[in-house]
Amino acid sequence: MKRGIWILAALLAWAVSPVSADLRAENWNAFAPLKGELTISGGTAHIPVMKTLSTEIMKASPAIRISIAGGGSGLGIKQVGEGIVAIGNSGRSPKPREIEKYGLVLHRWAVDGVAVAVHPDNPVHALTTAQLKAIYAGTLTSWKTLGGPDRAINLYTRDASSGTRSVFWKKALGKGEIHAKANFVKSNGAMKSALAGDPYGIGYLSVGHLDASVTGLAIDGVAPTLANVKSGTYAIARGLFSNTKGEARGLARAFIDALYSPRGQEIIAAKGFIPVKG
Questions:
Q1: How far apart are CA 162 and CA 188, in angstroms?
Q2: Nearest to 192 by CA among 173, 167, 211
Q3: What start and end residues bound the annotated signal peptide (predicted)?
Q4: 3-state SS assignment for residue 189
Q5: Does residue 166 have a pLDDT over 70?
Q6: Which of 43, 159, 173, 58 is nearest to 108 (CA)?
Q7: What is the value of pTM for the model shown?
Q8: What is the rounded distance in angstroms from the CA atom of residue 162 to the CA atom of residue 35?
Q9: Within this chain, do residues 97 and 170 fall inside the same structural domain, yes or no?
Q10: DSSP secondary-structure letter at 152?
Q11: Which of 99, 102, 131, 231 is most buried by a 10 A CB count?
């Protein structure tokens, strides 16, 4: 099985009947008359929500198959625009030229912070923006300078198609340099694994992916918590989008409506994001 891809249940064939947004969270009754395959790709921050929601829907309606792939925001936008998938997830708003080129309709269902993170054994718990910029530019290279061990700082970053990288680059680095020797990882999950295994590493990932295996750093005295993201105090934040080519129909419409349902909002909050209703 390829990394980042989950194939989750049975049967094919598309259904195009409209679905009410008034979904019952207990048993997903709105999906009962539907069947077919729904394909989703793109931003990796979205995957925990996508997986949980898809599992519940397919348990309630075995005639539905939902396939979820990562690949980054740029890939999600491109694939939905080219008709390869029905929903393309992105951790950034598609650019105006992308919206115009592909006829995209944007569905923003959560707000997410992007946390700068390190191994939990690292004694450094806070940075200034100037220090962070110097680290990623490659001019500040030792943890000792920051009160940590006398070891080199190992940089981790995402590839250019990542919405997480785009937000980090713009809002944390002010579009500053990311050193060419930084280690590339392909997803939020891969970033967490890399930092959890490297006591001298530094990287960035969705606040929703923070747990005991990685520590989020305060930036200019503000910690990457959900409360601070929600209040706007923590400014390294972005919307999470599920984009469709034109107005969503059939299973895509039902799935997006499910994200805005009470149960969908519960799942979003449980995965560490701030739900956006409607």
A1: 10
A2: 211
A3: 1-21
A4: helix
A5: yes
A6: 43
A7: 0.81
A8: 32
A9: no
A10: B
A11: 102
The parent domain of residue 144 ranges over 112-237
Q: What is the mean pLDDT of residues 200-227?
A: 96
Confidence of residue 29 (pLDDT cuts 50, 70, 90): confident
Question: What is the average pLDDT score of the chain?
Answer: 90
Orientation angle between helical segments 262-270 and 47-60, nearest 10 degrees: 140
- Tally of structural domains, the chain: 2
Residue that has been written with the tokens 């396939």 in this structure = 67
Going by C-alpha positions, the residue among 100, 112, 73 that lies closest to residue 89 is 73
> 3-class SS at 80?
helix
If you write DSSP's letter for every residue of 156-174 in order, what string do you get? EEE-TT-HHHHHIIIIIST
* Same domain, residue pair 168 and 217: yes
Q: Which two tokens stand for residue 174?
A: 């002010």
Distance from C-alpha of 210 to C-alpha of 218, rounded to nearest angstrom: 13
Whether 175 contacts 133, CB under 8 Å: no
CA distances to 135, 183, 225 from 139, in Å: 6, 16, 28
Q: Which residues contact 100 (CB under 8 A, 6 or more apart)?
A: none
Region 118-130: mean pLDDT is: 98
Res 90 pLDDT > 60 = yes
* pLDDT at 95 (0 to 100): 95
Closest alpha carbon to 57 in 84, 15, 26, 87: 26
